[in-house]
Design brief:
By secondary structure, the chain is of the alpha/beta class. It has 15 helices and 7 strands.
Length: 304
């Protein structure tokens, strides 16, 4: 069995940064990671990707050839990838034996809440390559500071969960920056656990723009409460402990932790011996040095 993550979320939620930091963290704990870029609009990759959709199709070419805007171009690219799924399968097959996959998808939310192309691509890969994938849906934590935007994020998260039908983890990303946007109306637990949304009503009424849609907002909150599916984990991608806690949740959701319980325990024990400064911007050379230092520490410990 092959395990991995489908990384999705609105533009600016930090998907590419997440893939960069997560790939480094997983390498640090001993996993071989392959990052697959399926976002044809992502032309400035901070990580080394094993497979790049731009080798198959480029958004700029689609927009100029078919006179499409960015959104229409992305839909076209996903449709094209679905029709040429054999290309992606052939690229993935050499990596299946010993790699953990991170799929970096586009940020257009319609692809995961309305259109079927992205879902069909994921389902075909799961069936043909026997993948065990978890959808990691990133939402910028600053949306908690605005009740209206928070309700919108909840509705988007719920729609995506129902549409993709995958093991699913919603994540409030950039949690370390949330204080920069002002004070929260409630404790952070209120937003992560998605507690009684009726408490938001007063704060929504304070905004004239939201007050006129009071009845609609109440009905949307009731829908979210009735499903009772949405909650959030938090993430600071520069904090090893935060990333590690999220990895454990993902491993439980897709079954990785049950496939090799002993090896998982060994992986996370390495974190204690790793350097204390966790910087997801570090270069590959520095990362290699950290891995060598980790091996020396383990050998020294074994001699004592």
């Amino acid at each position: 069995m092959v395990f991995g993550q489908v990384v999705i979320g609105p533009p600016g939620s930090g998907k590419t940064t997440y893939c960069n930091g997560m790939s480094q963290f997983l390498s640090l704990v001993g996993r071989k990671v392959a990052v697959i870029n399926l976002d044809p609009a992502n032309d400035a990759l901070p990580y080394e990707c094993a497979i790049n959709i731009e080798d198959l199709i480029k958004l700029s070419d689609v927009m100029s050839e078919h006179s499409l805007g960015p959104n229409g171009g992305l839909v076209y690219c996903m449709d094209y990838l679905e029709m040429n799924i054999d290309w992606l399968e052939e690229k993935l097959k050499p990596l299946i034996e010993d790699h953990y996959f991170l799929f970096d998808f586009p940020g257009q939310v319609e692809l995961f809440s309305l259109h079927t192309n992205a879902r069909n691509i994921i389902n075909k890969l799961i069936k043909k390559l026997d993948l065990r994938l978890t959808a990691v849906h990133l939402v910028d934590a600053h949306l908690c500071c605005d009740p209206g935007k928070y309700v919108s994020a909840l509705l988007l998260s719920l729609s995506t969960m129902l549409h993709l039908e995958l093991p699913h983890i919603n994540v409030l990303s950039k949690i370390d920056l949330i204080e920069n946007y002002g004070n929260l109306a409630f404790n952070l637990d209120f937003y992560t656990d998605v507690q009684d949304l009726s408490y938001l009503q007063y704060h929504l009424d304070q905004d004239p723009r939201s007050a006129k849609y009071r009845k609609l907002t109440k009905e949307l909150c009731d829908v979210i409460d009735d499903f009772s599916l949405v909650n959030f984990s938090t993430l600071d991608i520069q904090d090893k402990e935060s990333v590690g806690n999220l990895v454990k949740l993902i491993d439980k959701s897709n079954g990785y932790i049950f496939s090799s319980i002993d090896s998982s325990a060994v992986e996370f024990s390495k974190i204690a011996a790793a350097p204390l400064d966790w910087d997801y911007y570090r270069t590959a050379a520095v990362q290699e040095k950290y891995m060598k230092d980790d091996e020396i520490v383990q050998k020294t410990s074994g001699m004592q």
